[in-house]
Structure formats: structure tokens, C-alpha cells
Design brief:
Length: about 220
């Protein structure tokens, strides 16, 4: 089974080059001002050019207004929108209809009961991103480097397409793939040398760990 890999929170050409060289299927840009990974729409538009024809460029937004979305669409031309705030199913449907782009809805999880939150979005969201719930006091809805119990995803309906996120890194990706067997994975802080600073060497190391884990399972 093919595994989608999204490197999120990109801000530099060097990090983008490392993501594409490793084989990323998706590259993400954060448009949330409180995040250390925030990037201006025009800069994201410049960086995403390298991904054309190679990886899907994803605009990550948090309860964004239509005006801000219009600006992002005009300057970045994303292939996909990731809604990482408190957006309702109605808002997801509205955004999809307005822009005609696939939408990935992020939902925070910590226990099996949280999977019930998926149901209202079925048939509306094209894909889900399952992240850990933010630590108390955090202003960031994602990118906190926190993991949840991946085993709760084992009982998930096989028809639910998602990316696994939250606390992933080269050291634990093998366990994540073995326990949850996700169709996609998303990493941000796990390939950073400091908050918001992507390290090309860590990106390369992560892809190497993914390949090792998948080859071990296939053997």
C-alpha cells in the first residue's frame, strides 16, 4: 500500500528541497499567526513552485475568514486546504463549495470515544488529519510534538481516509506504522532543530526511518 507523507510547516527552500528529495507526497504551509511556522501567503506561493508536479501543496488554516482564504488562494494556489481549527461540518462544506478544492479536516484525539467526532464530517471532508489534543495552555492547535495512543485507530472504519499526526519522529515512526497502519502520515516538529526551524538532515533521517520500517514489515 502506498503511504502518503506530508512534511508540514515549511518555510525555506532547503527544507522544501529535502522534503521533495525524500519523496513527500504533500507539503504544508501554516497560515496561523501564532505559530512559529507561520509563513506569508506570497512566500508560500514562491516556495510551493518547487512542488508543482511532484507533491500536493497544502494550505493549513485555523478558523480563517473568507477574506484571508481568498488571499491565500490568490497568492499560493494550493492544491488542498487543511482546516485545523474548530470548523463545523457546515463550514467545511462552505469552503469546499467556495474554492472547489479538496479539504482535509483536522480532529484532535486522545481516546477511542473521540472517534465519534468523525461522523458529522463523513461525506464532507475529503480526508482527515488525526492529531493529539494540544497540551493545556498551548495556543497551537497542532505542531505541539505530542502523540496520542495510536492503537485507538485500529478499530476505525476502513473507508475513512486519514493522515496520522502528532509527535511523530524518526525514532517512533516504526511503532506508529506498525500499530495504526495509517494511509498517510504528517510530521512537523519532529523534523525541527528548534520550533519552526526545519532541519534538512532530520527530514532525510525521517524518510530513511520510514523506508526502514516499511521494508521490515514487508520482509
Amino acid at each position: 500500500m502506498a503511504l502518503d507523507i506530508k512534511i508540514c510547516g515549511l518555510k525555506t527552500g532547503a527544507a522544501m528541497a529535502a522534503a521533495l528529495a525524500g519523496g513527500a507526497s504533500h507539503v504544508g504551509f501554516i497560515f496561523f499567526a501564532k505559530s512559529p511556522r507561520y509563513v506569508e501567503p506570497a512566500e508560500a506561493g514562491r516556495l510551493r513552485e518547487a512542488a508543482r508536479g511532484k507533491a500536493m501543496a497544502v494550505a493549513v488554516i485555523v478558523d480563517a475568514s473568507d477574506a484571508f482564504l481568498d488571499e491565500i488562494l490568490a497568492q499560493m494556489q494550493p492544491d488542498m486546504l487543511q482546516l485545523h481549527g474548530a470548523e463545523t461540518p457546515e463550514r467545511v462544506a462552505e469552503v469546499k463549495a467556495r474554492y472547489g478544492l479538496p479539504v482535509m479536516k483536522a480532529l484532535p484525539l486522545s481516546e477511542a470515544a473521540d472517534l465519534e467526532r468523525i461522523k458529522p464530517f463523513i461525506g464532507i471532508s475529503d480526508r482527515f488529519l488525526f492529531d493529539a489534543k494540544p497540551p493545556k495552555g498551548s495556543e497551537l492547535p497542532g505542531g505541539n510534538g505530542v502523540a496520542f495512543d495510536w492503537r485507538i485507530l485500529v478499530g476505525l472504519d476502513g473507508g475513512v481516509d486519514y493522515m496520522l499526526s502528532g509527535g511523530l519522529n524518526a525514532a517512533n515512526i516504526g511503532d506508529a506504522l506498525r500499530l495504526a497502519d495509517p494511509p498517510g502520515i504528517d510530521i512537523s516538529s519532529g523534523v525541527e532543530s528548534a520550533p519552526g526551524v526545519k532541519d534538512p538532515a532530520l527530514i532525510e533521517q525521517f524518510f530513511r526511518a520510514v523506508r526502514t520500517a516499511r521494508n521490515t514489515r514487508a520482509a
